[in-house]
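User: Quick sanity check before I run a bigger batch. Here is a single chain. Can you write out its predicted 3D structure?
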Amino acid sequence: QVQLVESGGGLVQAGGSLRLSCAASGIIFSINNMDWYRQAPGKEREWVAHITSGGSTNYLDSVKGRFTISRDNAKNTVYLQMNSLKHEDTAVYYCKAGRRFWGQGTQVTVSS
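Assistant: Done. Predicted structure follows.
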């Protein structure tokens, strides 16, 4: 049974930082590409960041230079370090493993 459990969300002031974690089980984590998505109220879910099994990364333009995705294969965990947070980053953040496995999400709220 595949499980992805996100944590690390919360309430932060604009300009602050948060680090999200996504712990995976039930999959061979090291061979999976991993992604972070987010969904703001009233909006569609959007892709935020991607990391390949080899560690290559890609980012949504609006988060480039502020967010960093990383992974620790020994801990079966992917991270999203979010700095210089803006009000528009407020959303539920989800991790995704491969093409079809999703976590339950963690709320990030940035107060302006």
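The chain has a mean pLDDT of 96.

User: Great, the batch can go ahead then.
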